[in-house]
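Support case: user asked for a sample of complex input and structure output to validate their parser. Sending the pair below.
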Amino acid sequence: MDTRTGLPVVGMVGGGQLARMTHQAAISLGQSLRVLSESPDDSAALVAADVRIGTHTDLAALREFAKGCEAVTFDHEHVPTEHIEALEAEGVKIFPGSGALVFAQDKGMMRERLAALKAPVPRWRRVNDISDMSEIGWPVVAKATRGGYDGRGVWVLDDEKAAAELIATGTPLIVEEKVALKRELAALVARSPFGQVAAYPVVETVQKDGICVEVLAPAPGLPEDLAVQAQQLAIDLANALGVVGLLAVELFETDEGIVVNELAMRPHNSGHWTIEGARTSQFEQHLRAVLDYPMGETSLTAPAVVMANVLGGAPGGISIDERLHHLFAEDPGARVHLYGKQVRPGRKIGHVTVLGDDMTSVRARAARAARWLQEGA
Amino acid sequence: MDTRTGLPVVGMVGGGQLARMTHQAAISLGQSLRVLSESPDDSAALVAADVRIGTHTDLAALREFAKGCEAVTFDHEHVPTEHIEALEAEGVKIFPGSGALVFAQDKGMMRERLAALKAPVPRWRRVNDISDMSEIGWPVVAKATRGGYDGRGVWVLDDEKAAAELIATGTPLIVEEKVALKRELAALVARSPFGQVAAYPVVETVQKDGICVEVLAPAPGLPEDLAVQAQQLAIDLANALGVVGLLAVELFETDEGIVVNELAMRPHNSGHWTIEGARTSQFEQHLRAVLDYPMGETSLTAPAVVMANVLGGAPGGISIDERLHHLFAEDPGARVHLYGKQVRPGRKIGHVTVLGDDMTSVRARAARAARWLQEGA
């Protein structure tokens, strides 16, 4: 507890934009997020008051960081499982716990556990040799079991030759069928240690080159029964895996229904729209969950909400500050979130959210706003 | 400019809750608010990354603070006019400028200027001796020309005896008629150096013992012509006084129309509802104004929005953290803002905002939520 305020201290490992936006939410709750950041120039470190410099692979740094925190949680999934176990053994309240987080860290374990829970998953194998791939049938999707994100660590392989090259790198892999998907969805829930689970409306996520570019809330035209099924699946998984905090279940919608693609156990890009688009943002909800506060309302604040990511464009051209001037003149209702990151091509440097009554026009506005910030010239 | 982000640096003098919430808004714009705070335990200093310790009456501290800021602005009105003038002479962009701010600092000058602009004001006098008061007719409202807030520096005087006692203290005073008011309203606008002015919907403010306890947005039952008149008055005053940033015009509604009570030139308690209740919060709007960005949309996000202040209750009883647990269980849709301040009876320690379709029920929920946080036991 912070003795100056009488309110709890939450520590977040990692100084990226998720920690940045979680700090923003913490301020409303009377808190100040403690951030473990690799560099003082990281996105969250630029704005938080209580920043400790250190790396998530350093157990001593994690241990020191956790002192005085009511709860420790994560901006990413890269903290070694054994470090989390060590902290848990020492009595640190760290959420999600090692027993849950491992299913977001290791795709092989995730697939095995989901199969055991009879959750809908694509056909898959752990890859020992090339026969595991050819059994699935070409083309296949190969994934590194650990460490991938934003399209990294995922390969679509058309034939044995490409597969052999990847296997030769020695990366531990799983392989999945290339699902004939209609689109991608995400179901976001939050679960507290008490066991309360709150579910957000199911959204559509639009990917380009493996990176999420747009999120549409609620998922347009999604049949009610499928929406309820997706929410229930996320609730069941949160309970079965013992998740504390947010759980984002990334889904493929196919002709036969939904299948689970990935799990994330932290505030997630598919939930950024909740800052303005839901009564309680995912960032506040995550804090409430890890502190075992009752969950906040998850309903939409407008009939149509679209979040569009702002990706770094080509170097040069007009500055981000000038682009912001132009965007604000162009669309006074666009809600901008910039992460304070150096622009690199393809890097997520911010997002824009637009709310309204009509999904088609809201989507067009959000896409235009994101493009405006990205390219500008 | 912050070279790490390519985005501007705004400095805010004063480390109270207004700076705290402005920092929260700055984060979305890719910025990190620089705060000049008297103590590291001040509300904003607890959450901001770029905190300088110093006092607003120290010109050297102000000068050092302003270095590298694109714009300097205020959390309160207490910076000496001559210090602002000195900084302006040195080329610091400080908003509102001394020429405007003085009308929020000095009630005598404000009344004179408003009268010259033919704005509606109560009958008033500068107080030289008791005859200035008796001319107005008992009871009168006496106000210290400088330094009052939240009911401090304001006295209702019933007779000559009470008046004589106050005059004997030597405090420079103005005196006004005690207006037969139906209720209090506030018109909030923001103006940029370019001259763009954005107006928020006119709200009703409910006071108790001179402290604002509730704000209802929009002001229930306010005739459209009176709402437009109040907005136009605020726009005209912002232009005439050359305000840059926010201007809150506190108004009395009487049987004869509206009269101006007070002016504030900063984010204002009557605008806290805008965080969730308007497309652009007053805090972001203030930043956009002082940086000469185009203004954001000011429309309501729900038909009825109520902000209720949380005042410190009697010492003892259950802790603020426990009260928060109870409130979140009681009303999952209440939006809480705690300022990280030590509880003292009557001190504003936070606020709660509730949104909905029906003003009566929204107001009841907001009042209950604020009471819950205040007393709890």
